[in-house]
Design a protein that fits this description.
With 241 residues, this protein is mainly α. The protein has a single domain, classed as Rhomboid-like (Rhomboid-like fold), CATH 1.20.1540.10. The protein is 59% helix and 9% strand. The chain has a three-stranded antiparallel beta sheet. The protein is globular and about 50 Å long.
Length: 241
């Protein structure tokens, strides 16, 4: 299922959402510009070195593989990693599509400043969740998925019955349908839980697991629900006659 738009109107311009998308795109374009590095020299390409340096690596965050000359600080990489994506453009496009569709309405509810805090904290919670599941991992976490998962969690609470225009299909059969947010986002979180379970199951058997940080998605989603209640401004009191 590919969401295309929702039916919840905005009361204001989603400035923070737009800026976040722009920053992610700019960082991606910078990564692509570094991608001219060659493997023929025997070392990693410049783009890969950039991702390794500024991605959030669990073992660096826990100190399991940290060194005295670590740069940037592991804590800084928690934030820088939120704006980085793999060189596969679909990683960026998918995250930004979800942020654009669902982020504007959450920003509308929280206000611009609160939404920025919400987004960053959801990303931090996602990194913490993934690190707790694999504290000695040397694979850097990159992508806005954790923070965007927090946006999905908040949106689900705020607008469970919003209608989402969705492209649904299989093989050569595709069609546009309207799906309630409760169904679409509910299906999404069930898939994260399923793949998270399969990842843990495979790890216990010593098998190789995929490169998707499923527990970052789950942690970000749960954090988004909690942060919504903590950061949502109080409703204005009704005037007494």
């Amino acid at each position: 299922m590919i969401p295309l738009r929702d039916d919840v109107p905005n009361r204001s311009v989603p400035v923070v959402t737009i800026v976040l998308i722009a920053l992610n795109v700019l960082v991606y374009l910078y990564e692509v510009s570094l991608g001219v590095g060659s493997r023929e020299t025997g070392g990693p390409a410049a783009a890969e070195a950039f991702l390794l340096e500024f991605g959030a690596t669990p073992c660096r965050l826990t100190g399991a593989c940290a060194s005295l000359d670590d740069f940037p600080s592991p804590l800084v990489t928690v934030f820088t990693s939120m704006f980085m994506h793999s060189l596969n453009p679909m990683h960026l496009v998918g995250n930004m599509l979800y942020l654009w569709i669902f982020g504007d309405n959450v920003e509308d509810t929280l206000g611009h400043g609160r939404f920025l805090v919400f987004y960053l904290l959801a990303g931090v919670a996602a990194a913490v969740a993934q690190t707790l599941t694999a504290p000695r991992s040397v694979v850097p976490m990159i992508g806005a998925s954790g923070a965007v998962s927090g946006v999905l969690g908040a949106y689900l609470v705020l607008f469970p019955y919003a209608s989402i225009l969705t492209l649904v299909g299989f093989a050569f059969f595709w069609r546009f349908v309207r799906v309630p947010a409760l169904v679409m986002i509910g299906f999404w979180i069930v898939m994260q839980l399923l793949f998270g379970y399969l990842t843990v199951s495979a790890s216990t058997r010593g098998a190789e697991t995929g490169g998707v940080a499923w527990f970052a998605h789950i942690g970000g989603f749960l954090a988004g629900v909690v942060l919504l209640f903590l950061l949502r401004p109080p409703s204005p009191k009704s005037a007494r006659l």
